[in-house]
Design goal:
The structure is a homodimer.
Chain A (H helix, E strand, L loop, with lengths): L12 E5 L3 E2 L5 E2 L2 E8 L9 E5 L26 E2 L4 E2 L4 E5 L37 H14 L7 E5 L1 H12 L6 E5 L7 H15 L17 H15 L2 H7 L17 H16 L2 H13 L10 H4 L6 E7 L7 H13 L4 E6 L13 H12 L4
Parallel strand pairs in A: 5-8, 5-9, 6-7, 9-10, 10-11, 11-12
Antiparallel strand pairs in A: 1-4, 2-3, 4-8
Helix pairs in contact in A: 1-2, 3-4, 3-7, 4-6
Amino acid sequence: MLENNSVGIVTAQTAHFSEPLTLQSGEVLPQFDVVFETYGTLNAAKSNTVLVCHALSGNHHVAGKYAETDKNAGWWDNLIGPNKPLDTNKFFVIGLNNLGGCHGSSGPSSLKPKSSHKSEKDQPYGASFPIVTVEDWVNSQARLLNHLGITQLAAVIGGSLGGMQALQWTIAFPERVKHALIIAAAPNLTAQNMAFNEVARQAIMTDPEFYDGDYYAHKTVPRRGLRIARMLGHITYLSDNAMGEKFGRKLKDKIKYSFDVEFEMESYLRYQGDKFAGEFDANTYLRMTRALDYYDPALGYGGDLSQALKNVKAKFLVVSFTSDWRFSPERSREIVKALLDNELTVSYAEVTALHGHDAFLMPDTHYHNILRGYLSKVEV
Amino acid sequence: MLENNSVGIVTAQTAHFSEPLTLQSGEVLPQFDVVFETYGTLNAAKSNTVLVCHALSGNHHVAGKYAETDKNAGWWDNLIGPNKPLDTNKFFVIGLNNLGGCHGSSGPSSLKPKSSHKSEKDQPYGASFPIVTVEDWVNSQARLLNHLGITQLAAVIGGSLGGMQALQWTIAFPERVKHALIIAAAPNLTAQNMAFNEVARQAIMTDPEFYDGDYYAHKTVPRRGLRIARMLGHITYLSDNAMGEKFGRKLKDKIKYSFDVEFEMESYLRYQGDKFAGEFDANTYLRMTRALDYYDPALGYGGDLSQALKNVKAKFLVVSFTSDWRFSPERSREIVKALLDNELTVSYAEVTALHGHDAFLMPDTHYHNILRGYLSKVEV
């Protein structure tokens, strides 16, 4: 069943790019695929495009369903559709899977283009897939827009790592972005955030089934490591209070004095970890966390974010959530300050929310009204 | 070299208990050893004893050195010694290793007492060592006092999990405790704290070298899991700010675009993880985290901590640290409130400190002066 105001049944498309892409690391991707979806209709002036950038474990399936019987809709379906805050009656919305991903765009688990040697069999990139950065993603996204004949974005929007991409769009392509909506993001990660990423990566990389990233060839999956990484992730997505509200110290049953599930929270974490480990690619997880670690537009400007943003022209909506300890409001305010230093037009909303970092994905009325209000004034 | 005001060269002792100990789980330890150290001299009235309870990875070696050439002194050496805040000219101080530990007291890695079958070889308890709780520890600590002929404690002191034991002493043995110093503790863990414990345990228990806890027999060590657990621990012991101050986003070298160490913080975490994995017993780690999870004196009183403390007679010093997000000041204040509800004498200090939970181990002047002042007024 489709909900009211759904974008309906959607289909993913794949764009192939045969022109090499030089990455920030200096490595070159000789060719690559980008899988994407679109919702709404591109207007004649090609002026109504909104690009949605995904976060760590997201992908191109942002809204709608592939079949009426699908249990779940796209990951930001509550935001996008006819008459929803990001209104597809007005906007042409693009969602895509980033390079290095595991949902159809070129990444570690996709097949490496055959070399000229005919004897060589198709095999996945594995560890040989390069490390990609937020800057690389934005460059590849620009290629996708070129492919679609779209010069300028009415808006780019993203939460978390997606918000970093939205910010990077305004730096890398100041002429191509009219509005940027940067939600639950930061201008770089704190040491603590990077430390969580490092623990997650080490859990994956020391899993004996990881085989230095070439586990496809060994027909194994570093499932244990990925499971630990995801459990850890879930702790950081929720606030202490949200975990308290949701689970508190609730016991599953009578105390058994064992290492089995005793508390409901344990059951939740194990379930989330197992689910993710069965779906997601470990090499992609490593790359997504590294992209988060590396992003730091102020690095080339002696840490001066205002300087890093000096050529930016877009207008901004920045949103943070009070209980988000992963990307705290304080970090969003750093972005706001640097934008204001450059006399840019910025709206900023600090939303009172219990759900921590995850709040950016939730249909909180106050939050959604802020997005609706801002987007309703975006001219197309 | 020994520092000034050191307790000097110390020797650990072992007390053997042949009377069975019934644990909270209902299991019975038929016999057990407790390893301990003492500093200072027991006075004739036997009224000057201070018991030091250790936290997750602590042990009985609280102060002094085993040899002048030892690199490190006991874990709370900065606090304990002649003329130090916990002054061994005045007090007789006891440190011990808790049951389930891996430093000499009976635990999973110690040899199981031989059964009557002569053919059975000595082998470690392994997974068969029972789960012990804060309540069990306090009972076993009381046995140690009996063994030493000490009826009453001038004070019991502990930080973190050690603070929970100090609190439990005042509940279980109200007549035997004159003062309790409860530092960086909480009346129970939050869901978030328990979640971190669960991730650490899952990392250990899913390590293929864990063998359901019987890795001694397999001559393996679940080193990978223990390493991840410790890395994660270190993130939670430090505040976000402390990690920021200590490491920030400092790079080791030029960015290599790799999963090797790029940031200094990564190097620190890996070092700490490796070191711990080479020293500590995984089965002990599991049990220590479970004891943390389970402790909740209010559980039998419908969550009413004030009721749980209704028979308590001790006087209290409660100390918390502003940047401690693992056991936040708010949680310490819950203890203070419940004590005051019972019209007990309580001093409370909230110390401004940058170092997060770890602050309780550090020689901060303000913090140490608070302890010194309080302890100087304890009558012996």
